[in-house]
Amino acid sequence: MTNDIKIIDGINHSKNLIESVKKLVLKSEKLNKRKPSIAVILIGENLASKIYVKNKIKTAEKIGIVSKRITLPSSISEKELLNKIKNLNEQREIDGILVQLPLPDHISEYKIILSIDPKKDVDGFHPINLGNLFLGNNNGMIPCTPLGCIYMLKKELGSLSGLNATIVGRSNIVGKPMQSLLLKENCTTTITHSNTRNLSGFTQKADILIAAIGMAEFIDNSYIKNEATIIDVGINRKKINDKNKILGDVNFDNVISKVNLITPVPGGVGPMTIACLMYNTVKASFLRNDYEFKEIIFDE
Q: Which of 99, 100, 120, 144 is nearest to 36 (CA)?
């Protein structure tokens, strides 16, 4: 098998999902007599955050989702930000609210997430949405990155039932929701992290390995079994020969000969995260207006 055949093309998968979302946008517009909409709040001058927000808004506008960009200084107080979110919660024509993370140190991330109406929480980070996911209920908002990962896995592997899946990383954004989604697909799941003893003893048993530990090229071929499928969630910026390079949590060149399938970085999970944000926005436009929504990511 050549290396190209082993690569999971996140860009192509994201385009396919976006095509499905476009149809839902038209259906939503017909039902609600307006286009679905998202408000994106960007605080401060973080360059990576600016790029992420620009890409999200560009994708939204391309497929007919109205986007409202709200740029605020890093000096904004927590109370002022909470008031901005309260105002967006009350605007009927706004379907989704996203506050781009990370936040300045003086603002509590937890308080901000908690203040967003769960029905408009298109990031899927609100405790109510995470609780619904934990209970196996897909009717809430599901965090975009794990949702994109499960979409690619189902498209590439078909049924995941009975497979051993190991997650390296326990964040509320990726690791924990990823475990819930894999359990729902009848995988046998193990969640590990940077303090796990004998980590390779767990990862070497995985048919599916989700790398989300936040350490550049940490996973090499000593951590994986032959013919494993690897989803690399890592985004690590490193200067190599005076050039900024984005590296995953997996040493791609070291593992490629051993794997069944692998997502590259960039071009793997990243595009799917944005596509799933669009999906969640349209989903919100249905559910918060009491229209039935068919969960195509799981049912397609």
A: 120
Whole-angstrom Cα distance, residue 221 to residue 15? 31
Residue 123 designated active-site: yes
Report the C-alpha gap between 125 and 103 in whole angstroms. Answer: 14
Residue pair 98/40 in contact (Cβ under 8 Å)? The answer is yes
Q: How far is CA 172 from the centre of its chain?
A: 11
Q: Is residue 253 annotated as part of the catalytic site, yes or no?
A: no
In tens, the pLDDT along 45-85 reads 988 899 999 999 999 999 999 999 999 999 999 999 999 99
pLDDT above 60 for 26: yes
6, 35, 56, 119: the active-site residue: 56
- Per residue in 228-263, pLDDT (tens digit) is 999 999 999 888 888 888 999 999 999 999 999 999
Helix axes 10-32, 144-157, angle to 10 degrees: 120
Question: pLDDT tens digits, residue range 89-142?
Answer: 999 999 999 999 999 999 999 999 999 999 999 999 999 999 999 998 888 899
For the question of residue 56 being annotated catalytic, the response is: yes
Catalytic residue among 6, 35, 84, 100: 100
Distance in angstroms (rounded) separating the CA atoms of residues 201 and 244: 33
Q: Determine which one of 95, 117, 123, 232 is catalytic.
A: 123
Q: Residue 17 contacts by C-beta under 8 Å, 6 or more apart in sequence?
A: 151, 272, 275, 276, 279, 297
Confidence class for position 1, pLDDT limits 50, 70, 90: low
Cα 90–Cα 20–Cα 29 angle in degrees, nearest 5: 40
CA distance 211 to 220: 11
